[in-house]
Amino acid sequence: xxxxxxxxxxxxxxxxxxxxCRPSAPQALGTLEWDRVSLPAPVAEKIVRIDVRxxxxxxxxxxxxxxxxxRTRSQLAAAQAQAQQTRAMLDELxxxxxxxxxxxxxxxxxxxxxxxxxxxxxYARLQxxxxxxxxxxxxxxxxxxxxxxxxxxxxxxxxxxxxxQRGTRSEQIAQGESALAAAQAQAxxxxxxxxxxxxxxxxxxxxxxxxxxLGDQAPVGAxxxxxxxxxxxxxxxxxxxxxxxxVQVGDAVQVHVDGRERPYPxxxxxxxxxxxxxxxxxxTGKDAARLxxxxxxxxxxxxxxxPAGFPVRVEFDKAAERE
Length: 323
Description:
Elements: H1 2-21, E1 27-40, E2 47-50, E3 57-58, E4 63-67, H2 70-95, H3 99-131, H4 137-166, H5 170-196, E5 198-200, E6 205-209, E7 223-240, H6 241-244, E8 252-257, E9 264-271, E10 276-277, E11 291-299, E12 311-315
Antiparallel strand pairs: 1-7, 1-12, 2-4, 3-6, 4-5, 6-7, 7-11, 8-9, 8-12, 9-11, 10-11
Helix pairs in contact: 2-5, 3-4
């Protein structure tokens, strides 16, 4: 009996030792991350209202904060006035000359025609007198020049009347239309900028950070709010070079989160094709001297309560390890 117990104990010990000597599943280290949405400041204006707090969950379209509106409203009003003025100028071009302007041009033509007729008659009277040397030659020359000048004025008046009668050139209308489009576009830009001063959530998520406080004036492009979006976090890991050939997008993995007993099922959603140097927190043993490949592992809804930044360990199927 004693010998049997000894043999059983030895067998159990051998099994335990054999299990302990088995190689562990291939693994990679990393951290939990959430998809982030950063809302930059469209203009450098003072924050006049904050509607949320850090850590608060918000729905898409929920107001987050508001910037000072006064200056942008004035710029919008000026742009709209410029667009209205340009539109009125285009309407004037499209309507063409007024009937009063055409009537005035006709009257001007009649006046210069009368002057030209008088100048021709005077010159005609002086010509025979000049040939008889009854008047100075200079006087005849002046009459001839006056008659020619009067004829030129008649032609100019005729062309001016013709220009009015034909209306506005198509090129001028095209220029007016382009000017109106530019002015309207500028007004639209100011409208969009004004709307952006009321900062709203583009997606449902949780407010991760509000870098600026009430009354602060953030520079253009600075993040006013940062949201964590998506149904669950993902694991950003660094796949060691020996495992890369066996890891593909769509592979199922087990994600071990520091502080949680049970692993979370995950799936590879992205893996880089170019290697990089392994970050210091992902170095394990011989992997310290190797390159790694950045990868992302999507998690299910059961991981929705996990915060960002937690260290994780991802285990692959043993077949992923390169022989």
